[in-house]
Amino acid sequence: MSFNEYEQKFKALADQKRLQILYELCQRGNTCVCDLTEIVDMPQSKLSYHLKILLDAGLITKETKGTWSYYELNSTEIGALLSEQLCCIFRPRAADSCC
């Protein structure tokens, strides 16, 4: 991975709203953008801006079903970037969880 790719990923993480989006995706799993607007209390246009940054950084994945887009945390990427302590914030509680 190049320094530019790392910079893009860490810039994506350096925003409170994007961290909230990641946290909510972690807690809920695959989530429709229509539901995320209510969860994070943000208009869809602003939410789409933040989702694109996270998507371009590879921190989330997107699946389109009909006219709706569903987003999910890219757990592999999050686990590779963050320390065990930080990644626990973005991992659902499970038997294999670090927490």
Automatic annotation (TrEMBL):
Assigned keywords, A-Z: DNA-binding, Transcription, Transcription regulation
Domain HTH arsR-type: 1-93
UniProt cross-references to PROSITE patterns, sorted A to Z: HTH_ARSR_2 (PS50987)
Example GO molecular function: DNA-binding transcription factor activity
Organism domain of life: Bacteria
InterPro entries with a match to the protein in the record: ArsR-like_HTH, HTH_ArsR_DNA-bd_dom, HTH_MetalResp_TranReg, WH-like_DNA-bd_sf, WH_DNA-bd_sf
Protein name as annotated: Transcriptional regulator
